[in-house]
Structures are given as structure tokens and as C-alpha cells.
Amino acid sequence: MKKIVFLMIALMMVASVAFAQKSIKITPDKLASLKGTWEGTITFSVGNTAPAKLEILNDTVPVKGVFTIINLQDQLAQMLGATGGQQVASNDEGKITTQGTIMWAGPKNFFEFTQTGDKKGNGWFYWNGARGDVTFTKKK
After folding, report:
1. Domain extent at residue 128
2. CATH code of residue 120
3. Residue 4 lies in a domain
4. pLDDT digits (tens, 9 = 90+) for 51-64
5. Is there a domain that residue 12 lies in?
6. Based on the structure, what is the number of domains in the chain?
7. pTM for the complete prediction?
């Protein structure tokens, strides 16, 4: 019985490593390749999804970015104290973190972007009391 439990734990550990998404450390010299428009899907912690866009506007630190929720559903917007439809947040103070991500932070909100491939990325955010995740593909 102990061998079975041990094997199950070992299998779960191997599976979690095998399916973990690899990240590419962002450094100042890589910002030029990240500049442009990234499109994807945002998933809020309550399960709602919406199309999203991240625009990285420059290739120097501080990193200027615009994050857009393209169509925030009215029901979710009411829960967050916002209006439905398009929500745009811009920030000119993005920093490269020691983990090799870009972090934009405001007084009550933040967004962290991780590069996961040549034209792939993901992020997580806290906005108006909601946490969520985003997956992106670079378009331009």
C-alpha cells in the first residue's frame, strides 16, 4: 500500500513538471522583440472570460503598456463596480522584475506579464477586487 501511495505521489510530481509552462526571462535587451500588440483571452477568478489585448508601446524601461478588456460582460462589471464593455488601463511605469517578468502596478491594481514562447505570453492581474489570468499571442 505504501508503494502505491509513493508511486502516485511520484507520478503527480513528474506530471506537474512535464506540464508546467516554461517562461522566458525578460531582460532589457529583449524588450524590442516584445514591443507590439498581444491578443488573447482573459479569465476572471469567477470563471467569466473576455477577449483582451496588451500593447507594449516601447522597448525601454520603464515599459509603457496599455491593457484592454475588449468586452467586459455587464453582469461581471456590476460585481466589480465598473461598466460593461471595453475597459482600458494604461501605465507608463512597467518594471522588469527579478523573476524576468514585466510588472505594471497602480494604486489598487496590477498586471504581470510573462513571456512563454517566441510569440506567446501569459499574465495575471488584480483589478477592481478581481483576480484573473490572461493568455496572449503576439499579433504585430
Report:
1. 23-138
2. 2.40.128.120
3. no
4. 999 999 999 999 99
5. no
6. 1
7. 0.82
Concatenating the DSSP letter of every residue in 54-85 gives EEE--SSSSEEEEEEEEEE-HHHHHHHTS-SE
Q: Is residue 17 part of a domain?
A: no
The C-alpha torsion from 109 through 115 and 116 to 118, rounded to 10°, is 150
Residue 21 grid cell: 509552462
Which amino acid, 110?
A: F
The answer to whether 40 touches 128, Cβ cutoff 8 Å, is no
140 against 116, higher pLDDT:
116
- Residue 104, Cβ neighbours under 10 Å: how many? 25
Q: Is residue 11 part of a domain?
A: no
Residue 5 CA, chain-centre distance (Å), reads 35
Q: What is the pLDDT of residue 1?
A: 54
- The span from the CA of 67 to the CA of 62, in Å, is 16
Residue 21: pLDDT band with limits 50, 70, 90: low
Give yes or no for a contact between 31 and 46, defined as CB atoms under 8 angstroms apart: no
